[in-house]
Write a structure and sequence with these properties.
Blueprint: H1 9-12, H2 16-30, E1 34-39, H3 44-47, E2 52-54, H4 56-64, E3 71-75, H5 78-87, E4 93-96, H6 112-126, E5 131-136, H7 141-149, E6 153-155, H8 160-169, E7 173-177, H9 180-189, E8 197-200, H10 206-209, E9 219-222, H11 234-243, E10 248-251, H12 257-262, E11 265-266, H13 269-277, E12 284-288, H14 291-300, E13 305-308, H15 317-320, H16 324-335, E14 342-343, H17 347-363
Parallel strand pairs: 1-2, 1-3, 3-4, 5-6, 5-7, 7-9, 8-9, 10-11, 10-12, 12-13
Antiparallel strand pairs: 4-14
Helix pairs in contact: 2-16, 4-5, 5-17, 7-17
Length: 364
């Protein structure tokens, strides 16, 4: 990864109002050549300039609906921009605002070398056709490509149950990565006992994993997690119920099993937005997800009580590094004919990642 130089004072010293005006001006000049995608976890100062707001896969698909656009600017993290590049045609260029600091800690917890080792060890015991790999959308293109090459697929938090069902119907064992909590929560919903879902620790040798029963498990869960959703605890659920009588707790399935079990309901980002937005006036919600989304829902639903499940600011630190100065800098570099921070997945990886993504779409 190439480190990005610091922005000069034209960007860093500009007021918020100046930045907004300059972004609007360059966007108008670029017109239909440009599509800006903003993830739900971005700050309002960024997403107000986005053509679309959504989760990572929804945004990547929106990009495919604008074949006239030359440039897709993804206000998100690296794996999201990779997915957009995989799904869009060659004539479109995908750019990220801050690639040197826009990694996803969860996605970074699984790399292709680690997965190849785990796959080799596990299939040596049960045979090459004994497992089906499933990766969460929050993973690198290389991990998605591995799943495509080995008959697996990708899932989102919205369709994970459907993907699990497909895998179980094949009567194969599942390797689920990189988020152990989503894998465990969905597996439990599908009737898989907790003792049949065992962690694989990629940071230790196979001989340290196998004695824990991982080779006999129905589901091998990768030992990864979301640094944001992992901050919510069962105690937070108890505390918010005591503090706000009648509150309804809703958690993202990237939260721990214990938090999800104590919540009134759980679901994807889109599910959370729908549940809160469609609830009657006077409803009270404590939400276990990223703070920018919680604040946005509170602002958009002034007739309801909407708070974070915890009393701490659970923000995605890498998303937080994306800001209006970098958005302006990115757009001006496009206009100057020297686009920066281009995200390009190599052809082989893109092909197999697309196979895995197409399988997911077929199942949906």
């Amino acid at each position: 990864m190439t480190l990005q130089a610091e922005l000069d004072a034209r960007y860093t010293a500009a007021t918020p109002e100046e930045l907004d005006a300059r972004i609007a001006e360059v966007r108008a000049r670029l017109g239909s050549r440009l599509v800006i995608l903003g993830h739900h976890y971005q700050c309002d100062e960024v997403v107000r300039h986005a053509d679309y707001l959504g989760d990572s896969f929804k945004l990547a698909r929106q990009a495919t609906r604008h074949p006239e656009a030359e440039y897709i600017v993804f206000c998100g993290v690296h794996f999201m921009a990779e997915s957009a590049d995989v799904l869009t045609p060659e004539h479109q260029t995908v750019l990220l605002l801050r690639p040197s600091s826009a990694g996803c800690p969860m996605a970074d917890m699984a790399n292709i070398d680690q997965l190849e080792i785990a796959w080799e060890e596990l299939t040596a015991i049960h045979g090459p056709d004994s497992y089906v790999p499933i990766t969460y959308m929050n993973s690198s293109a290389a991990i998605k490509a591995f799943c495509g090459r080995h008959g697996g697929t990708v899932c989102t938090s919205s369709n994970a149950r459907t993907v699990y069902r497909w895998a179980l119907e094949q009567e194969k064992r599942i390797i689920f990565l990189p988020d152990q909590h989503l894998g465990r929560n969905v597996g439990f919903e599908m009737g898989i006992p907790l003792d049949q879902m065992v962690l694989w620790n990629p940071l230790v040798i196979a001989d340290d994993n196998l004695p824990r029963g991982v080779a006999d498990a129905k589901v091998v869960l990768w030992q990864g997690h979301c640094s944001v959703h992992g901050r919510f605890t069962p105690e937070h659920v108890d505390q918010v119920r005591e503090r706000i009588p009648g509150v309804r707790v809703i958690a993202h399935p990237e939260c721990s099993f214990e938090v999800v079990q104590k919540s009134d309901e759980h679901g994807s980002t889109e599910h959370i937005i729908k549940a809160v937005s469609e609830s009657p006036a006077g409803s009270k919600w404590a939400i276990g997800t990223e703070i920018h989304l919680v604040h946005r829902l509170a602002s958009e639903n002034p007739d309801k009580t909407v708070v974070s499940l915890s009393g701490i600011a659970c923000l995605c630190s890498t998303m937080y590094r994306i800001d209006p100065p970098h958005l302006l800098w990115c757009l001006e570099s496009i206009e100057a004919g020297a686009p920066r921070n281009i995200i390009k997945v190599d052809a082989e990886t893109a092909h197999w990642a697309r196979v895995a993504l197409d399988k997911m779409l077929e199942l949906a």
